[in-house]
Write a structure and sequence with these properties.
globular
């Protein structure tokens, strides 16, 4: 009995340490975003000066704009292309599916520096000037594999006869896709989109090698800072808040909706 209690205590203590290791740096950044002074070790008083400083920093605001713009476009395009590709692969012959998935794994397993240099050399050899367009294309390229890898396991769980049954019942291919297949893989598509957005939002290496002159995302802006700017704490806090709201929207609201639906069905029954 004592051995069981001691094991439970050690397990709980281990989990607490892991959670502290993960979340304590985030809490630290949030706390010092409201610090009155520039000190990173001593909290001297509550203030919103760094949020005001962030809003008055045109260079930082420009980097935020480029980051969000590239991430949104890359997420939208990679999600559509990745979803269609995954659905097509699920209907392909096994040898073709296996070969394409192995190729799809290369950008994921490949170090970012290799991918970045390869893309830069590709654009230069094709006489394409590095610009916002090359940056967006690069982000789309490395986001698509993550979307495919996220959706494929869900597609394997689907009954292959469902789409064929929809076609037999009079649905055209577009209706079978939008009303039968997509609703069943929607959670995987959403997860793939969130992963793509996250990968694009915080990318530095590929962005550094493929962005044009004068185009900086947040990670490039932080890298180019000559001295530490506490406004980054304020920006990081806002990002944490936005991510938290997105996670709540994606996970909590659908769960509440499902509970209400079940209660309604139970009452009607």
């Amino acid at each position: 009995m004592r051995k069981k209690k001691s094991t439970t205590f050690l397990t709980s203590g281990y989990m607490v340490l892991i959670l502290l290791f993960i979340y304590l740096p985030i809490f630290y950044v949030v706390l010092f975003s409201f610090n009155e002074s520039k000190s990173l070790t001593k909290f001297t008083g509550f203030s919103l000066r760094w949020y005001e400083s962030m809003m008055n920093d045109s260079t930082m605001l420009e980097s935020i704009w480029y980051t969000v713009l590239v991430a949104v476009i890359a997420t939208a395009v990679s999600t559509v292309v990745g979803t269609i590709t995954a659905i097509g692969l699920s209907k392909s012959r096994r040898i073709i599916r296996t070969a394409v998935l192995e190729i799809n794994n290369l950008p994921v397993m490949n170090p970012d520096i290799v991918t970045a240099i390869g893309l830069m050399l590709l654009f230069i050899s094709a006489n394409v000037q590095l610009s916002l367009t090359t940056l967006i294309l690069s982000h789309i390229m490395f986001c698509i594999p993550y979307v495919i890898l996220t959706i494929m396991p869900k597609l394997r769980q689907l009954d292959d006869n469902v789409a064929e049954a929809a076609l037999d019942l009079g649905a055209n291919p577009w209706q079978a896709l939008t009303k039968v297949i997509l609703p069943q893989i929607y959670p995987a598509v959403l997860s793939g989109a969130l992963i793509a957005f996250s990968m694009s939002f915080d990318d530095f290496v590929i962005s550094f090698f493929t962005a044009g002159v004068g185009i900086n995302n947040i990670s490039m802006y932080v890298y180019s800072m000559k001295r530490y700017n506490p406004g980054i704490n304020a920006l990081s806090t806002l990002i944490v808040v936005v991510v938290t709201l997105i996670l709540i929207t994606v996970n909590v609201i659908p769960a509440i909706r499902d509970k209400k639906t079940k209660r309604t069905e139970a009452k009607n029954a």
